UniProtKB/TrEMBL annotation:
It comes from Candidatus Roizmanbacteria bacterium CG10_big_fil_rev_8_21_14_0_10_36_26. Gene3D superfamilies: DNA-3-methyladenine glycosylase AlkA, N-terminal domain, Hypothetical protein, domain 2. This is DNA-(apurinic or apyrimidinic site) lyase. GO terms for biological process: base-excision repair. It is an enzyme of class 4 (lyase).
DNA sequence: CATCAGGGCCCTG
DNA sequence: CAGGGCCCTGAT
């Protein structure tokens, strides 16, 4: 294994912990990443290779600076193609990794318009101030996030965790760096010859068919993450909705998290509606249309981003404090 | 023991 | 456009 480190300088302001840890995401047993204040670890796929990343906070909100340590050439990977035997990482690959980190964690995003907007509506100003500089980041590539979205469909959190873990044990890449063990979601190619029945054996139910067909679409380049990244929200949504097993909620997740469209607020799932109703109205249930109208009125093209701040804020609070109405709606 | 809904989506009529 | 069915699981 070899190691390479470098620095990255996010656009100011930047909130390290808010960006690298999202407490609303479900914690699976087989870790895809790890976080402690000021430090973050994950396995990241760039091209066909897998890298271990340790990202450390070496600055502050107004002078952000990240130290990135990249580990590669693991000895213990199942797939030999993922290591190339070279000990030094070529400059071109290093640039690719940097670009990918910058994209997934939105390090270059200019949030000044959004920040101005959040000052207009006083009600949530404390929340926006608390997380000033937080990004809508996504540790995963599009395929990986799609897999996670599929196991989330029509299941309780507990079962989603079980489904993902079953899949990871069988098909994920497992490796260790910086004295920590991590899993990474497989490349589509690694699932190519796995039958639907084999997948069903992992208790993922009818989702097996979705994963099978979606994986084929990625292998056949019917979906290309990099061209989707360049599209408008509407065209990207159209493309995603064509995929078998991708509906309004899954495409919203992908548009917002993986493709970073801040206005991807077209769809509100019933369980989210209940949480939004409490957060925004202190009421058990407000109509989804009203919620949508009100949020868009206040936050316009930043509607989903604004909701993300308020959403994550309550889940941060939940770490130290019991919030009864929230516990009820999360349904582990 | 049976029944049911769940952090959606597909398919049919 | 509405509504039934889908895999499986834990709750009732």
């Amino acid at each position: 294994m070899t190691i390479n480190s470098f620095f990255l300088y996010p656009k100011s302001p930047f909130h390290f912990d808010g960006t690298f840890h999202k407490p609303s995401h479900f914690p699976n047993k087989l870790p895809l990443d790890d976080w402690q204040p000021g430090k973050y670890w994950q396995l990241m796929r760039v091209g066909e290779k897998l890298f271990g990343l340790r990202i450390e906070d070496r600055g502050d909100v107004y002078n952000p600076k990240l130290k990135v340590t990249a580990y590669f050439n693991f000895d213990n990977l199942r797939d030999d193609r993922l290591k190339d035997g070279k000990t030094k990482l070529p400059q071109s690959e290093l640039e690719l990794i940097k670009k990918e980190i910058i994209y997934r964690y939105e390090l270059d995003q200019d949030l000044s318009d959004f920040i101005k907007l959040t000052k207009k509506n006083k009600r949530f100003t404390p929340v926006f101030n608390r997380w000033l500089g937080m990004r809508n980041s996504c540790e995963h590539n599009l395929y990986e996030l799609l897999i996670i979205s599929i196991v989330l469909q029509n299941a309780t959190v507990h079962r989603s965790v079980q489904m993902l873990d079953n899949l990871l044990v069988k098909y994920g890449d497992q490796t260790e760096f910086d004295h920590k063990k991590f899993y990474a979601i497989w490349r589509p190619e690694n699932l190519k010859y796995v039958s639907e029945q084999k997948l069903r054996n992992l208790k993922i139910g009818y989702r097996a068919k979705f994963i099978k067909r979606l994986t084929e679409d990625f292998i056949d380049k019917k979906v290309d993450e990099f061209s989707l990244r360049k599209m408008t929200k509407e065209s990207a949504r159209n493309e995603l909705m064509k995929l078998y097993g991708v509906g309004p909620e899954t495409s919203r997740i992908l548009l917002f998290e993986a493709l970073h469209h801040y206005d991807a607020f077209d769809h509100i799932a019933p369980w989210q509606q209940k949480i939004y109703s409490q957060l925004f109205y202190n009421q058990p249930l407000v109509s989804a249309n009203k919620i949508k109208k009100d949020i868009i009125k206040h936050y316009g093209r930043y509607s989903m981003l604004a909701v993300h701040y308020i959403w994550e804020d309550i889940f941060w609070r939940r770490k130290n404090e019991k919030i009864d109405w929230l516990e009820k709606e999360i349904r582990l």
